[in-house]
Recover the amino acids of this structure.
């Protein structure tokens, strides 16, 4: 028998045994251009805390798959005041980057490197895909939410100053330009991924001018996509609805701060930030990292015991593979990861298991076809 | 009460038959409001003739736990407000809470002294009484005036919003072990309302954090934790990004934490807080936060326990002012139809009582509400049942074994019967007396009526 039919038979056998039928393999219909298979360079930033652990996991899996990418590794830590110039060069050249979290010291004088990276590369959209993983029990069912968050302005402009001792002001800046482009990206995403509804999250009843401008931009863009339903929801009501009835949300577009909260809440109800993929994308560059809460690099104990959850970064790297136009590899990786999760005996502590990172990686590699 | 069962003359006759106990006088003094005109006149005559009996006064003292009534302001509000305010008044009276309500309504025009629809008198009343209970108010749409909530907040200097969120036993949501309090700074932060358009297409909004306001709310949070026996206070922030503003807030919290070494203090970044709240809310105890995060997190916690229809809240101001309010909307679509759920306003009233240190009555009413919801027989439409507001309120009053002041347990059966009769209590008290005693004590005429009324036959 040819190796191909052997593989197909193995799949059939496995599929009939597997509990969920939604883990499918598809026959590849993507027709590449000649030369697409040559290896692409991707900048890799391991980061702090659990970062090196999980990026190492990705490296191992990529090698096992013989994926046509190679990593250029750079050491960046959260205490540095700026991202080194050579790293920026590399990202600008490769256009794609995969990174672990960079820890920002709380209250110190150093501004967050995660935010800096996003601003310099103008990665204006941050995307988190929160969905129920089959086989992972959570309190909420039917969750499939994509949170698209404006990444450059809003409350995170970083413009703070002390007016007099004891009084500090922080500026929140909203511009029509940024609001429009994030709204356009959100609707475009919905259109290209066959999503039916876009919800804008705001607090315009209190911040009438600022969030009002954001809403105006969203409404204008909504008119150009008549096939997609558009509605608006106030952020506190939104959080309440997320914990009560998350199935009503599809794609959500939000300014910076609310997006952070909504993304973390949505990630929490769907299984935790350890498993949700996401990334930041701009007009020219894309940086993939753990979906929500990228600044959370985990506790020291998790690092020492090697119990970090690599699933989020593995699924993000699958998104990266698709971005680089290697859909077959992305499919294989996602299928393997989902199978490992649904089988249930190889899970890290945040999902209720006892495995180490390495064990999960080995399981994923074993499940690759 | 008697009114619904007997005519005035019949009541008069019944009371005459069972009139010779001194405690009857005391009971009638206490339950004055519940009596019909005839009985009131009758009682007054009795008081006149037996005013020197010592038993009467001692029993009277047993009923009223506090001799001076407290005046409190009540804003029934719009929409379903008046119905649920009525419910609160009934429950409080039956529980013997010594409060006289001063009701104020939102007027139809703008009062020039306050620049809003709330009159100067209303605000003065709250300032004077220092406690208030507010129902849902709908801000009329239009320009040129401040929102009602904003007016109250600014004029009364309400700096902290306290919202306890706990899972109600018997009302099942996805989360069963929620037991936390959110304390939110209420005056500054992102809601200062200072916005302006720099150039076309660019808007700036100011977020202000001051040392004074942060210290105030941190002090209140730790004080609350200590007085309510809570062990941990968590400050929620985003100081890794907003370093100076949230950094100042954290510094103030740390300073206050040092003064309370027995309470554990921790700081949690808001992303982690959101995630931990939806995964495992039992991890949190008391949360203290600036304005915007507080708004979002307190609504999130309300969602965890069952929604805004069940959540109480209390605004604390300077000089010990406390304004408890129900945070849900005025629901104009069910206004006037007797369908509203009064739980939020009732629980807010309980918070108000605790603030007034009337802990015994607060506990009684609280247990009655919890037991009624836990029982599940009487639930309003928003909880999935089909009872009306009045039915639900009556059900709470039915759990009246809780309302039995401990001193009444030593009463004779006749005294209990009389008290039950007079006070509008239902079956619980009468069930403690045997049917034979009822017949003997209450006299032939009254017995069947009484027993029927209280569901004994």
């Amino acid at each position: 028998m040819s190796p191909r039919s052997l593989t197909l038979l193995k799949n059939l056998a496995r599929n009939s045994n597997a509990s969920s039928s939604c883990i499918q393999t598809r026959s590849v219909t993507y027709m590449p251009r000649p030369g697409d298979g040559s290896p692409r360079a991707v900048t890799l930033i391991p980061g702090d805390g659990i970062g090196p652990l999980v990026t190492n996991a990705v490296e191992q899996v990529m090698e096992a798959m013989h994926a046509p990418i190679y990593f250029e590794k750079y050491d960046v830590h959260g205490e540095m005041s700026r991202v080194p110039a050579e790293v920026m060069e590399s990202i600008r050249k490769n256009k794609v980057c995969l990174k672990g979290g960079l820890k920002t010291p709380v209250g110190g004088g150093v501004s967050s490197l995660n935010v800096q990276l996003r601003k310099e590369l103008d990665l204006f959209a941050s995307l988190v895909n929160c969905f129920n993983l089959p086989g992972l029990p959570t309190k909420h069912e039917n969750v499939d939410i994509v949170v698209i968050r404006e990444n450059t302005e809003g409350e995170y402009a970083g413009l703070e100053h002390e007016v007099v001792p004891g009084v500090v002001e922080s500026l929140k800046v909203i511009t029509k330009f940024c609001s429009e482009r994030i709204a356009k990206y959100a609707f475009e995403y919905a259109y290209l991924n066959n999503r039916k509804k876009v919800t804008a999250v705001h607090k315009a009843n209190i911040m009438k001018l600022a969030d009002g401008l954001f809403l105006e931009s969203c409404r204008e863009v909504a008119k150009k996509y008549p096939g997609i339903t558009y509605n608006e929801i106030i952020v506190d009501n939104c959080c309440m609805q997320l914990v009560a009835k998350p199935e009503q949300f599809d794609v959500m577009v939000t300014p910076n701060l609310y997006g952070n909260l909504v993304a973390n809440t949505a990630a929490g109800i769907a299984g935790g930030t350890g498993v949700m993929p996401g990334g930041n994308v701009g007009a020219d560059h894309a940086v993939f990292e753990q979906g929500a809460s990228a600044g959370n690099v985990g506790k020291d104990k998790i690092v020492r015991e090697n119990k970090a959850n690599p699933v989020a970064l593995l699924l993000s790297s699958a998104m990266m593979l698709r971005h680089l136009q290697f859909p077959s590899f992305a499919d294989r990786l996602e299928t393997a990861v989902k199978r490992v999760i649904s089988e249930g005996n190889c899970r890290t502590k945040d999902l209720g298991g006892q495995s180490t990172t390495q064990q999960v990686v080995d399981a994923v590699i074993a499940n690759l076809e | 009460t008697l009114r619904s069962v007997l005519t005035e003359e019949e009541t008069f006759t019944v009371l005459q038959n069972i009139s010779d106990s001194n405690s009857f006088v005391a009971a009638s003094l206490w339950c004055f409001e519940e009596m019909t005109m005839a009985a009131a006149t009758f009682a007054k005559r009795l008081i006149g003739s037996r005013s020197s009996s010592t038993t009467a006064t001692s029993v009277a003292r047993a009923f009223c736990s506090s001799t001076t009534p407290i005046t409190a302001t009540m804003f029934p509000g719009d929409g379903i407000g008046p119905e649920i305010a009525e419910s609160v008044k009934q429950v409080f009276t039956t529980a013997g809470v010594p409060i006289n309500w001063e009701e104020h309504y939102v007027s139809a025009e703008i009062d020039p002294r306050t620049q809003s629809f709330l009159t100067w008198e209303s605000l003065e009343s709250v300032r004077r009484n220092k406690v208030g209970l507010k129902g849902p108010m709908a801000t009329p749409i239009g320009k040129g005036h401040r929102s009602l909530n904003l007016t109250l907040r600014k004029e009364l200097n309400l700096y902290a919003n306290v919202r306890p969120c706990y899972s109600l036993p018997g009302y099942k949501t996805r989360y069963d072990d929620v037991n936390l309090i959110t304390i939110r700074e209420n005056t500054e932060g992102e809601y200062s309302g200072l916005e302006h358009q720099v150039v076309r297409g660019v808007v700036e909004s100011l977020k202000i954090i001051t040392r004074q306001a942060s210290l105030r709310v941190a002090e209140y949070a730790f004080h609350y934790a200590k007085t309510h026996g809570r062990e941990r206070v968590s400050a929620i922030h985003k100081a890794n990004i907003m370093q100076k503003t949230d950094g100042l807030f954290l510094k103030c919290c740390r300073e206050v934490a040092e003064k309370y070494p027995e309470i554990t203090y921790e700081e949690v970044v808001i992303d982690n807080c959101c995630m931990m709240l939806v995964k495992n809310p039992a991890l949190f105890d008391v949360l203290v936060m600036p304005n915007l995060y507080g708004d979002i997190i307190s609504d999130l916690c309300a969602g965890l326990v069952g929604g805004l229809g069940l959540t109480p809240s209390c605004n604390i101001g300077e000089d010990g002012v406390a304004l408890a309010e129900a945070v849900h909307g005025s629901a104009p679509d069910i206004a006037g139809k007797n369908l509203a759920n009064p739980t939020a306003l009732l629980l807010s009233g309980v918070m108000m009582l605790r603030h007034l240190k009337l802990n015994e009555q607060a506990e009684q009413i609280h247990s009655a509400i919890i037991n009624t919801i836990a029982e599940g027989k009487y639930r309003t439409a928003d909880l999935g049942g089909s009872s009306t507001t009045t039915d639900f309120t009556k059900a709470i009053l039915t759990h009246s074994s809780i309302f039995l002041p401990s001193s009444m347990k030593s009463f004779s059966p006749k005294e209990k019967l009389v008290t039950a009769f007079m006070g509008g209590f239902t079956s619980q008290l009468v069930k403690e007396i045997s049917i034979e005693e009822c017949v003997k004590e209450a006299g032939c005429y009254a017995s069947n009526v009484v027993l029927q009324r209280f569901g004994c036959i």
